[in-house]
Amino acid sequence: MDRHREYSDQFREKQKRKGRFLFLLVMFLAGLAIIGLLYVLVYSTALQMKEVVIEGNKLVPENEIWSGVMGEMIREHRWKSLFGPNHKAFWVFGKTPDIQRLIPNIKTIELEKELGKGRLVIHIKERKVEGVWCFGEINCYVFDEEGILFARSPDVSGTFIIKIQDDSTSYARLNTKIVEDAEFQNIKTTIEDAEKAGFHARKVTIKSEKEEWWMETIGGTLILFNIKFKPKGFVEVIKTFLKKNSSSRPSQIDFRVPDKAYYK
């Protein structure tokens, strides 16, 4: 009886050892399979990107764009750093990277993915210089057609580019607007209409506290506007006054009151 129990115990122990061995063998083989699959996924040439093209950039260097795109993609999904940007999996998920906050010169970015072909095209649209906005004598920034400041600028003069001198003490930041959209459009379209009529601005000054702005023409006439609205028919009024001989032209025309024009 004792011999039978001893034999049974030995048999059960052998079965346990055999079971543990089979379990460890299966886990080992499964681990090898997972490692092999990961190796194929990460290093397989079939899953590598073959071509990356950046189009539309003229001023922003390609390496700066590429670095910004990669950084934003990894910031959104950390696991992408496992594959790297040369792998198709890097580009499968995720929204279009917001690199405008890093590179204010860029207005829009669009990713065109052809992962089947291993091709990626990064379409860039850069901001165009509309003018220069200055606070004081040396604190100047270029702005685009939407009034967004996107780069530092030296001071400028002349009529080739619009210069707006702001007398406020606002702290300027890149990728921001100084005035509201409607106010900026009032200023922008008024200057454009005046120039189309042949009256070029030599100097534009924003009087923020008074909510008004001044435009001095090349001829020396100072024209005053309310920043909150664009005066109707102001071009015809200016033409009427500035057609006169220089000796009889007004030194100042005031459009700050709606539907009124004053001069002196």
Task: Kindly describe this structure.
Keywords: Membrane, Transmembrane, Transmembrane helix. The chain crosses the membrane at residues 21-42. This is POTRA domain-containing protein. The chain is α/β, with parallel strands linked by helices and 264 residues long. It folds into 3 domains: 2-33; 47-126, membrane protein fhac (Ubiquitin-like (UB roll), Roll); 131-263, Rossmann fold. Helices cover 33% and strands 26% of the residues. It contains 5 helices and 13 strands. It has a 10-stranded mixed β-sheet with strand order 8-6-5-4-7-9-10-11-12-13, covered by helices on one side. The protein has a 3-stranded mixed β-sheet with strand order 1-3-2, with helices on one face. Strand 11, helix 5 and strand 12 (252-255) form a beta-alpha-beta unit. The radius of gyration is 34 Å and the shape is rod-shaped.
Which labels suit this protein?
three-stranded mixed beta sheet, Ubiquitin-like (UB roll), rod-shaped, alpha/beta, 5 helices, 13 strands, Rossmann fold
Q: What is the multimeric organization of the chains shown? A: single chain
Q: Assign the CATH topology of the largest domain.
A: Rossmann fold
Termini distance?
Answer: 129 Å
Rg, nearest Å = 34 Å
Helices, by number, come to: 5
> What's the order of the H and E elements?
HEHHEEEEEEEHEEEHEE
How are the strands of the biggest sheet laid out side by side? 8-6-5-4-7-9-10-11-12-13
Class by helix and strand content? alpha/beta
Name the CATH architecture of the largest domain. 3-Layer(aba) Sandwich
Task: Characterize the main sheet.
Answer: 10 strands, mixed
The pLDDT mean sits at 82
Taking pLDDT < 50 over at least 5 consecutive residues as the criterion, the unreliable ranges are none
Count of discrete structural domains = 3
Protein name: POTRA domain-containing protein
Organism: Candidatus Jorgensenbacteria bacterium RIFCSPLOWO2_01_FULL_45_25b
Keywords: Membrane, Transmembrane, Transmembrane helix
